[in-house]
Amino acid sequence: MRREEWICVAAAGALLLAVFAWATTVLGQGLDLPVERPAKGQPAPPKAPDPPTASQGEAPRPATIYGRELSSGSSSVVYVLDVSGSMGLDVGQFTDAAGKVTAGDRLDRAKAELEKSLNSLPPSWRFGLVAYDCTVLTWATTLREATAPNKAEAAGWVRALKPGGATATGLATAAGLALDRANLALVLLTDGAPNCDSVTMNGNVPPEVHRRDIRAANVQGARIDVYGIACPSGSTFEQFCRDVASDNNGTYTGVR
Q1: Tell me: the pLDDT tens digits for 101-150?
Q2: Does 144 reside within a domain?
Q3: Distance of CA 92 to CAs 128, 145, 192, Å?
Q4: Which of 3, 9, 102, 201 has the smallest count of CB within 10 Å of its CB?
C-alpha cells in the first residue's frame, strides 16, 4: 500500500471511532427529542384526567326493603314495625342480616329484613323507627342521618324488640308520619288486623277507624308501602293492608 492510501485508511478509521464514541455518549444519556414549548407568557396545557376507576363508574346502590327498591321523594324513610303478640308465632327458617340461615318467628324475620334495609340506606338519607303493640315506641324523636354509627345503634334497638300485646296500627302509623312532616316515605310491617287504640278512638277499635285515621294523619302525602307478614290471602287483614297502601299511594306486598 502506498503511503497516501495508508494515510486515507487511517483517517477514515479515526473518524469512525469518533462517531462511535459520540453516539455511545448521547444514547447513554437518553435522547432529548424536541417538544413543542408553550408560547411565552402562556401556561402549559392541562394534564389529561385519569380514566375513571371501576368504583367511580358504578352507580350508587338504591335503598331496599325485602329486596325491593325503596321509593322516597325526600331521601328519607320511617319504618313502623308491629311487635304484637301474634308476631311471636310461625317459626320458620330465614336468612339473617349477616347472611346466616337460622330459624325464628314472624318478628325475627321482620327484624332481619328491617336490618338489611337499614344497611342499604345511603349516607345521604335520613330515617326513623317506630315499634308498636298497644303502646307506641320510637327509637329517636327525630329522623337521623344514615351514618354507620346511627344504623348500628338502630339495628341494636330493633334486635332487642320482643312480641307484646294487641295491635294499634293507626296510632303507630300516625306517630311515624308525625316524626318529620318533610318525610315522604313510610314502610309498615304488620301481621294482624288492628284491634286496639287508634288516633280518634280507644279500646277495641275496628280496622276501618284505623284506616281512616292513617289517611287523615298523612297530611304531607307520604307514600306508605305495607308488608303483610304471613297474611292469609283474601282475609280481612289483607284487605286492610291493601286499603292502607292504596289510600296513601303505596303498594301492598305479602311476605313470610
Answers
A1: 999 999 999 999 999 999 999 999 999 999 999 999 999 999 999 999 99
A2: yes
A3: 28, 33, 18
A4: 3
